[in-house]
Here is the input.
Amino acid sequence: MDAPAGGAGIAEAGGSPRTPFPSHDPWNTTPALRDGTFCFLNTPARLGRPVDWAAAGQSLLWRFNLHYFHYLHLLPPDEQVALCRDWIRHNPPGQGVGWHPYPTSLRLVNWVRAGVSAPDLLQSLYQQAAYLARNLETYVYGNHLLENARALVLAGAYLDGQGEAGRWLEQGLALYRRETREQILPDGGHFERSPMYHALMLEGYLDVLNVLPTAHPDRGWLEPVARRMGAALQAFIHPDGELALFNDATQEIAPRPAVLLDYLAALLGEVPAPAAVLPDTGYFVHRDAAVYLIVDGGAPGPSYLMAHAHADIFSYELSVQGVPFIVDAGVYEYPAGTMRQYTRSTAAHNTVSVDGYDQIECWGSFRVARRAAPRDVRFEAHASGCRFEGAFDGFTPFVGEPVTHHRVVTVIPATRQIAVADRITGTGRHRAVSRIRLHPDVVVSEGADGFVLERNGVSVRLEWSDETGWRWEEGWYCPRFGVRQRCRVLALEAEGALPQRIDYRLTY
Here is the structure.
């Protein structure tokens, strides 16, 4: 079709944004972009001008990020237009990684957010949306399909009245109606159980609300969903404002939680009260003036989509006096290899492994073979503290005989203690290891009956029962893609005929 008319932005189309869209790019700068240097996943590369959009030699995720255009807001309007035209010239329709439906979705969102208005850019925007509408990621599903839906809604609203635009808007909303029932759990959590992807999906729901007219009928169900998701997001936030890193989650990829909550408040009038218990998603939180503790007590992910699952059942993260002390390993990269396998392993989390086995069988970049979910999970919170407990039988197929791990975590503010009690029951002789991963900045010194952990002037005493063996391991902490820091991991061991027990306590 001919270039769509108009293009002054959503304000002149069907959906009028109520508040400015948030912009987010943690890696790039205006001077570097002008020089043709791009940085994604904390890895810079000079691609020149015109841009080498193929970016051969970089990982697939790096190249995806190049084609997202998250960095577009860093350039003034005339340079935005020039860069978009450069992309159009060097990326013929349907060819190259840039036309994969996922980067196409995010690029559409970013071009709409930037308010592209030149006729040739609008023509490309229309062409990209038409391509996406016919190439949805139904074979990937999950968060990818919700990103497809967001892009169709935003493009449909932006190009209102032009050709198929109205059909895209309805197609995107229909996807949201269908997928929300499946992907957003009753407690407000996203079903892939990743705090990072939860934050990204919430941003998408808020963008949709931002462009839909006040009287649009879909707002009636979208607004309560966004509020539930906002309440759930707050369960994942440490006192320092950063996300917990369960499953595939790192900092930087999603906008900071505070930015998302401000965006939610601007659209819906207020931030919902934070959730402390997410029974469907499987996260349980104790938060008071001194302690933030979050425990993973849920399934690794939906049975048919475990691409972002880790073997982290009953793992936890802990901040004391606003300072993170016990951390998740995070994610270093997605390509299959030693670091990908390591960060998904049980040994990379604060929980128990048996005979060296992981709780679930992760392989490749995004695959899980044999898996199991916890059972008999309970969480009690009251004025005198909280108690989490659960059981896990998933080691049985790996070790060849019945083995159950039962964990109880108790927080007692009156005595300023956190107690972790692990029981390994079943038949035969086995070796159980319970790991405690310390933030790289934690300084360890010997105490009377254990170790003293210190960071930023805050001290925590770590002690365990006399019959428990122990050793220090060297581990990795990967709070951001492409970033890894050495950290200390305390491995507490019990070996012999079952039952065995491993108990430890943290005094703050």
